Amino acid sequence: MYCPHYLVDKNHPLPPAYYPADLVLCSIPFRADMYDLKRCICAIANKPLEIMHLAALEDGIKLYGISAFRPYHRQQEIYNNSLLQKGREHTEKYIAYPGYSEHQTGLAIDLSCSDIDFELTEEFADTKEGMWLHKYAYQFGFILSYPKNNNKGYAYEPWHIRYACNNAKFYV
To answer: Phi and psi (nearest 5°) for 81?
Structure first.
């Protein structure tokens, strides 16, 4: 069955009610409750993610999922909390406005490792897991969405990858 997938950026938002039609539970280890929505990812990305995870394990790399799918209302909570706790400048640099998050597409996932207590920090890039991900993710169809000095308006996020599937398009 064909299931369209959409990409978002600061010019192409998703509507609040958008949910991918093919969400499944991620098949990799996760740092979240078993039935938490953030453990879900689009089926089209799950198999490549599983294969990438197994390849990483063969190299002694232990990647853990932290957050994959995130619905609009959850992104709104995260955005509002960041505004209150860290201010507008930090929030606009690190947190997508609701409807503009790649997590809502179901194609993105944040990964981390035990060496940094499963945190989502730039230090991830210097771990063996972060270096492996940077070097090999593309071989499994994933891209680093927010590399250093990116022109997307977001800070460097070495932990955030997106499946670059062939049938994704911007939501219009």
So the answer is: -65, -40
Across the range 68-95, mean pLDDT stands at 96
**Whole-angstrom distance, CA of residue 9 vs CA of residue 152:** 8
Give the whole-angstrom CA distance, residue 92 versus residue 109: 19
Q: What is the pLDDT of residue 1?
A: 41
Residues 6 or more apart from 68 whose CB is under 8 A from it? 26, 38, 39, 40, 41, 103, 106, 108, 109, 110
Mean pLDDT over 29-52 rounds to 94
For residue 101, which of 8, 4, 5 has the smallest C-alpha distance?
A: 8
Cβ(4)–Cβ(165) below 8 Å: no
Q: Exposure pattern of 41-76 as b/e (b: 16+ CB <10 Å)?
A: bbebbbebbeebbeebeeeebebbbbbbbbbbebbe
Give me the count of residues in the chain.
172
- Helix residue ranges, H only, 59-126: 72-94
Per residue in 47-76, pLDDT (tens digit) is 999 999 999 999 999 999 999 999 999 999
- Phi/psi for 133 (5° steps) reads -60, -45
First to last CA, the chain: 22
